[in-house]
Amino acid sequence: MTMQFKASVLQYCAAASAAETLPIIEELVAESAAQGASFVCLPECATFLSRDRQALFDQAEDETTSPSLARLSLLAKTYQIFLSVGSLLMRDAGADKCTNRGYLLNPLGKISARYNKIHMFDAAVGDGRTYRESERFHPGQEPVLVQTTIGNIGLSICYDIRFPELYQRLSEAGAELLVIPSAFTVVTGAAHWHILQRARAIETGCFVLSAAQHGTHADGRQTYGHALIVAPWGEVLADAGSCEQGFVMADIDLAACNAAQRRHGTTQNRQKLNPVRLISEVSQ
């Protein structure tokens, strides 16, 4: 297993179609690889964010024939990197909803793992929009951890970050790297993005790698940016800020995972809890 390597997290504004966005991805991946990255991460909805629900469904692809996945697989093979495809919108024949699915591609361009986003973003965050992912997507059910030559990688997508039990499960299963590709809104990003990313790293003793969408998309939504790489002790190693299009990199040393876990002691000291005992003094 490679204990030390360079990782890159991308930041850009996905266009309304994969045809428009894929050249941006290809350029940024090539530049990351040229600067020595062995692991490159793309954001959620990596290839497009459509103007409306129907356009989104119409452009979702079938995994077995997906031209986007084929081009991304070729990228991983060409540059001999692990490529976290934050998520692609996929649909099965006859399905009434899509699946928001992340992929980990290996340096041979093969799919090492798939992860279907578990937690649906159904919320009104205060930006004048109401988000109802459950109306468009089937939720996933299973956490996914991938054992690779660069470390054990736990997969997740965006809104998952608000549910720490998922990351605890991944950590207990041996995760060292957590990918949290995102298209965070500006409102929630400004309030919670850095706090949540650092908290997941600290709680688990893992590196967190969060590629991010940033900008104003075809449907009018605005995404926050600030693609991050966070160390297991909670230090922000790289932050893309409000960069319109680019990437940031950091050196990853997996020895820092065990070191952080030993220092705060939560791995060995965690207790299995009984159900909550409710005490009520409310008069009947």
How would you explain this protein's 3D organization?
The protein has a single domain, classed as Carbon-nitrogen hydrolase (Nitrilase/N-carbamoyl-D-aminoacid amidohydrolase), CATH 3.60.110. It contains 7 helices and 16 strands. It starts with a strand and ends in a 15-residue tail after the last helix. A hairpin with a 7-residue loop joins β6 (122-123) and β7. α1 runs parallel beside α3. The chain has helices at 18-34, 53-59, 67-79, 164-172, 186-204, 255-264, 266-269, and strands spanning 4-12, 37-41, 82-90, 99-105, 111-116, 122-123, 131-132, 144-148, 151-155, 177-179, 207-210, 212-216, 222-224, 228-230, 236-239, 246-253. The strands form 3 sheets. Strands 1, 2, 3, 4, 5, 12, 13 and 16 form an 8-stranded mixed beta sheet that branches. A 6-stranded mixed beta sheet has the order 8-9-10-11-14-15, covered by helices on one side. By secondary structure, the protein is an alpha/beta fold.
List keywords for this structure.
6-stranded mixed sheet; Nitrilase/N-carbamoyl-D-aminoacid amidohydrolase; alpha/beta; single chain; 7 helices; 284 residues; 28% strand; 8-stranded mixed sheet; 28% helix
Task: Characterize this entry briefly.
The chain is α/β, with parallel strands linked by helices.
